[in-house]
Amino acid sequence: MGKVYTPATAATGVEEVFKLLEGRWKLVILFHLFDGKLQRFSDLEKLIPGISQKMLAQQLRQLEADGIVARKLYPQVPPKVEYRLTDWGQAICPALDALLKWAEQRDELPKAD
Amino acid sequence: MGKVYTPATAATGVEEVFKLLEGRWKLVILFHLFDGKLQRFSDLEKLIPGISQKMLAQQLRQLEADGIVARKLYPQVPPKVEYRLTDWGQAICPALDALLKWAEQRDELPKAD
DNA sequence: CTGTATCCAGTTGGATACTG
DNA sequence: CAGTATCCAACTGGATACAG
């Protein structure tokens, strides 16, 4: 609290977390995992129309590598994999809420001179 | 408040505002305009080392078209242009703060099982 | 000073086919 | 089921040159 950022450090800090969420599908994936929801790979494929296997796998790998999503493999045939948010992944909620709030203000606040 | 979003609508809502902030330089530009700061084109060029004229102009155009940044042209020779945040542009502050807070929790919260 | 136009390389993402 | 591999088209951003 009361922490002060210079434009440079604040921007790079925010930019860093933005990078973690970049890509066309990551946010959609995160929302489908909210509230501790578990989803299998095939569940996410069905829940996100238009996403390709390649992108789903790739984005999940990155989210996992960044510590936002956890992957649990059940060693059986055929294989079963479940994805969920890590604790840190859940912690992004307030930030996403704030962004939604900002989006809502778009029609309320003046945007011109 | 208490508004409930389905994964789909919430994701697209957040994704929409994310799109507005996408690009490698927009956040940096926004931070240099915080607190009602006025900046000329050449000021921003100096403040943001590494950015090209093309990108600075392009990102400013988009921020302006999206109602986040306002552009004021002084009709004189040589031309003078000042940029500042719109009211809605200023309103993004809390969201950016929340993202910074999330970034800070990265070392505090467990990221694995 | 404040841009626009052009060319070019690197990256991103989609379609398809294949694997343990 | 849960991926990987490959090819390819579209987009992004940098460098440079030019203009009002």
Explain the overall architecture:
- 2 copies of one chain form a homodimer.
- The first copy, chain A, has 113 residues and is an alpha+beta fold.
- Chain A has one domain (24-106): Arc Repressor Mutant, subunit A.
- Chain A is 50% helix and 12% strand.
- Chain A has 6 helices and 3 strands.
- Chain A has helices at 7-21, 26-31, 41-47, 53-65, 87-90, 93-104; strands spanning 39-40, 69-74, 80-85.
- Chain A has a 3-stranded antiparallel beta sheet.
- In chain A, a hairpin with a 5-residue loop joins strand 2 and strand 3 (80-85).
- The longest helix of chain A is centred in the N-terminal third of the chain and has 15 residues, at 7-21.
- The mean pLDDT of chain A is 91.
- At the A-B interface, helix 1, helix 2, helix 5 and helix 6 of A face helix 1, helix 2, helix 5 and helix 6 of B.
- Chain A binds a DNA duplex (20 and 20 nucleotides) through residues 23-24, 40-42, 45, 52-58, 73, 77-81.
- Chains A, B: Keywords: DNA-binding, Transcription, Transcription regulation.
- Chains A, B: This is Helix-turn-helix domain-containing protein.
